[in-house]
Amino acid sequence: AIQLTQSPSSLSASVGDRVTITCRASQGIRSALAWYQQKPGKAPKLLIYDASSLEAGVPSRFSGSGSGTDFTLTISSLQPEDFATYFCQQFSSYSFTFGPGTRVDVK
Amino acid sequence: QLQMVESGGGVVQPGRSLRVSCTASGLAFSSSAMHWVRQAPGKGLEWVAVISFDGSDTYYADSVRGRFTISRDNSKSTLFLEVSSLRPDDTAVYYCARAPPRRLTGFDYWGQGTLVTVSS
Asked: Model confidence at A94, in pLDDT bands (50, 70, 90)?
């Protein structure tokens, strides 16, 4: 089964910071990756699909890049509502694995 | 308003069964593959199962295969997950999620989740 790792597992940042989260797949998955944001007690929210396509309604400060095994989620200028946990998910095989998550909190 | 609402969670004893449901409205339910995802308290997300738009194909995570059954009733825009032989480590919030038609990745709509607690 394809495994996903994320780094860092957590980070502290300030409003206005540029934040980068990395997701690595155990084998190549082309561009079959999505990113989600989750806040406590809420369902995940889709941010990015197909590795780099912005979901409708998601602010343009979020962007995704990568293909194969290495992927990145970038928040260009962190806003107060962006403090949350972020997960990547692969769609290359019928296991639809999630990464372990990256928690972004206030510095 | 597009939404999905889960129901059927609760406290159940180990070894027993439970059926959780997810009813969709305002969505292209019958055109969409549907998934179940769970999240144990304080943990990450775990994909559980998927069913094709017409119910003809299903796939399961290794951790639930043989114990869980996903099904759907397109006439009622409802998704089901029958969970049996429950274990304490099945305790989680169970979410239904939609895979949008004609797209390869991403779950665009999620329910609010229903908590299943396995405890004696």
From this structure: confident
